[in-house]
Write a structure and sequence with these properties.
Distance between the termini: 87 Å
CATH architecture of the largest domain: Beta Barrel
Oligomer: single chain
Number of strands: 36
Largest sheet: 16 strands, antiparallel, barrel
CATH class of the largest domain: Mainly Beta
Radius of gyration: 38 Å
Shape: extended
Structural class: alpha+beta
Strand order of the largest sheet: 19-20-21-22-23-24-25-26-27-28-29-31-32-33-34-36
Number of helices: 13
Length: 756
Amino acid sequence: MRFSRLVLASALLFGSGNALALEPFIVKDIRVEGIQRTEAGTVFSYLPVKVGETLTEEKAAAAIRALYATGFFRDVTLEADNGVLIVNLLERPSVAQLDFVGVKEFEPEQLKAGFKQVGLAEGRIFDRSLLDRAEQELKRQYVSRGKYSATVTTTVTPLERNRVAVSFNVVEGEVAKIRQISIIGAKSFREKDLVDLFVLRTPGLMTWFSKHDQYSRQKLQADLETLRSFYLNRGYLEFNVDSTQVSITPDKKDVYITVGITEGEKYTVSDIRMAGEMLVPEPELRKLLKLKSGDVFSRERLTESTKAISDRLGNDGYAFANVNAAPEIDREKLQVAFTFFVDPGRRVYVRRINIAGNTKTRDEVIRREMRQLEGGWYSADKVNNSRTRVDRLGYFNEVNVETPSVPGTTDQIDVNFTITEKPTGNLLLGAGFSSTEGVVLSGGVTQSNVFGSGNHLGLQLNTSKLNTVYGLSLTQPYYTVDGISRGFDLYKRNVDPTTIDAGRFRTSTIGGQLRFGVPVTELDTINYGIGIERTTITTFADSPLRFINFTNLFGNTNTTLLGTIGWARDQRNSLIYPTEGRYQKANLEVGLPGGDLRYYKATYQHQIYVPVSREYTLYLNGELGVGDGAGGKPLPFFKNFYGGGVTSVRGYRSNSLGARDTNDDPIGGSKRVVGNAEFLFPFPGLSGDKSVRVSAFMDTGMISDTFEGSAFRSSFGVAVLWVSPLGPLKISVAQPVGDKPGDRKERFQFTFGSAF
């Protein structure tokens, strides 16, 4: 008795079928033939027939289907010989190796990993359909890189032991570049100005790096939305993109993009009405509106208005408030009126604040930053403020907040904080170079979150030609439950300004300080400190006379009791790449009675960032410093202010401004004024990279013992700031203005790296 593959055909086409007459028999034994790589046990595990069972037509068909379904075999036949079931198998070949010839755009291992996800990999069963999918995917990847002329040819070579070698032969061709972007239908704005809004562009100076001259469907969609927003924010309520055509030349080297638009008419806002449930007085809500009657319509300001009302209701506990603006368009008068429908929903309160992901940091370290309390009414501002404060701790890579409703309730939500911790203990080794201070070596051991307590412990070493600093510090950010911080500092500082062409002297200072920080508001902090310093001064025969007179009067070694008080307010939207907000700080350092030296030094700094557009920012900085002696004693000369260089007035050598001694070396002054105005913008061709910025600047400043107009020096120029993986690189090229004979000018200046 014999069953062939006709049994399979009848089983698949007719279910149980009667294509062959089969007399059932009892299986005395099962023998597997034809396998080379597959274990017999694997075949037995898939067979639905066992020794001792009766084999019927239905079971035979089921056995063939089961073995085919494994994907291991391309042919299956069953035979019977005196009660022995013989399973004849023809295995599919396996992939012995994958080769890539002519591939330069991708790493071979990267391609192998991608093919493995679709099922084509070394050691797996070869499947022609999977090979076709892999080939098409590789072509698609080349198209996404702008190589439309790339060709892919696959070769399958049989090997011994029923294996195959698969080779992908690729001719990559050249990258197709965007040669022209056209916008048809623009009447109110120049086509060139509209094209400049796009990220996609024709080849330029930096497109070799940014790849923005290569067509991308995703980038084009984003550019079209930017174009739409541009028009809608300028009153063109009925603006529409009619068509988008992307064509490629026959040689597949050049891409042409044509966008057809209808501008429509420009609309103004005729009236704004409020409707719905007014839980907040209407006059208060109207103050939140960014769009007023008589204004040119702007979708951006309309969206900001609805969000501002929703956030205001959210601060009163209405977490799910819904605000919709319904337009009424008058096409004859080219006006549009809006009715803001306010639906506050149900007022909710916070049942529980949950924290997840903190395996090292204690819960209390995170919870003490919360401004939203459990059991209190939900407040969007308080939740956002809590998230910001947790993020500013610096212990976490990510801080995410969700506010799900509590199942089974309509007036409760939970606030779930999910954090991703990062290492807070660091062994820091660094190096930098400055055109004025030379090589700067730095190192330190810090632990910003000791034992998960939130306390900061640091040991630091910084060296340069000008400064050598050794320091040990400990800070407790929550010395009290009210958020008062306490810190200790021990340090040794050696200063040698001789290396920067200042008047010759050296100081060696060892000291310690106890400091406290008191938060006054969410933005303001007042800092207090008291400490003691012991300074040893070394002068030379050619040192300035005033330096020598000072040491003759007060000695080479002095002990100073220090008192400090400071205030800081930080409203910047980013610490690394600020584009909006202010930063202010004021500090007062006083030599207290009981020490050898009596003096005071007061400084104030005010920074303002004004967003001009999405990519352009105006930065203004002003600094004022005043110092003098007290108790009948002069201001110590080593406490003088200095100016000039990358951090103050560029174009002049570092610390070179102000009066000079008989050796023509700067000696500093008791008063310091610095003003900077910079127009910040992205590096050409790298508008999406926030690590690189260019600025056009104007600097002015003076160092003197009196506020003299003649002491001011100014400059203008351009600068580049790159926050590189190795540290910040600052480069400036400046032209001094109003300089006088003898001024030490330095038009090109740079500094690389940072001191830890």
